[in-house]
Design brief:
Layout lengths: L8 H13 L15 H7 L2 H14 L1 H12 L6 H4 E4 L7 E4 L4 E5 L6 H20 L8 H14 L5 H6 L8 H17 L4 H16 L12 H19 L2
Parallel strand pairs: 1-3
Antiparallel strand pairs: 2-3
Helix pairs in contact: 3-4, 3-6, 4-6, 4-11, 6-7, 7-9, 7-10, 9-10
Keywords: Hydrolase, Metal-binding, Metalloprotease, Protease
Pfam family, one: Peptidase_M76
Enzyme class: hydrolase
């Protein structure tokens, strides 16, 4: 990930293979020299991405709750340090780079504010898990599976309206099915493992991780739910402070 002198061909080849295993191939701008602000603003979606990100962080109740929870956990998030708008592979919208504690937002794939809201929330859940737990993102697929389950469950990825937009319909247990499927898809996108390995990891940790609702305390199925969760989180902290 770091910039430096070119490696010898065998070492460089090995490093590229390792990067591919960890999904870095999906985020090619991670390895590029940074461009000037003028170039990014004129010739990419960078400026629009930054504006949408600012609106999400200031107004979206999912994001505001997670930002406050991260701050209280000792991991304050700064816009210019912990978020990066970059061009990505066409199959991803965002990612959490555990090596730099940075959230990557795919400026070429995020075109609508509602999409930005979900991506930021999803990745902030990964950041929260990274802050509060000793997550082995790179070697323990069960740890990755757990955070992907929580992100799909709590970010709004699996709301009824989003599923209808994907032409997916179901009745009893559909939310759980959506969470499981999206967690498996996320693992397969960033790790070179078989579908059977991803499914096994998700199934083994599903119940515990699906029922881990921190910091929301509930599954926020809508913005109204997220606002209530945010108020409850603030009140919970005020109660704790008075003990």
């Amino acid at each position: 990930m770091g910039q430096g002198e070119p490696d010898s061909p065998p070492a460089a080849e090995k490093e590229r293979e390792e990067d591919d295993d960890f999904g870095y191939r999906l985020f090619p701008d991670r390895n590029k020299k940074s461009q000037s602000f003028l170039v990014r603003s004129l010739f990419t979606f960078h400026n629009k991405c930054q504006l949408m990100l600012k609106l999400t962080l200031e107004t979206n109740p999912y994001a505001r709750l997670l930002l406050e929870a991260l701050k209280q956990s000792g991991c304050t998030v700064f816009n210019d340090r912990h978020f990066s708008c970059e061009n990505c592979d066409g199959c991803v919208s965002g990612g959490f780079d555990a090596a730099t504690s940075q959230i990557v937002l795919c400026q070429n794939n995020i075109r609508q504010q509602s999409h930005m809201n979900r991506v930021v929330t999803h990745e902030l859940i990964h950041a929260f898990d990274h802050c509060r737990a000793h997550v082995d993102w790179f070697k323990n697929v069960k740890h990755l599976a757990c955070s992907e389950i929580r992100a799909a469950n709590l970010s709004g990825d699996c709301t009824l309206m989003n599923e209808i937009a994907r032409f997916k319909f179901g009745l009893k247990g559909h939310h759980q099915t959506c969470v499981r499927d999206r967690a498996i898809r996320s693992i397969l996108a960033v790790r070179k493992v078989s579908k059977e390995t991803a499914e096994k990891a998700v199934d083994e940790v599903f119940d515990a991780c699906f029922n881990d609702l921190e910091p929301f305390g509930r599954i926020p199925h809508s913005k109204a739910d997220a606002k209530r969760a945010y108020r409850d989180f603030q009140n919970r902290d005020r109660y704790t402070a008075n003990l």
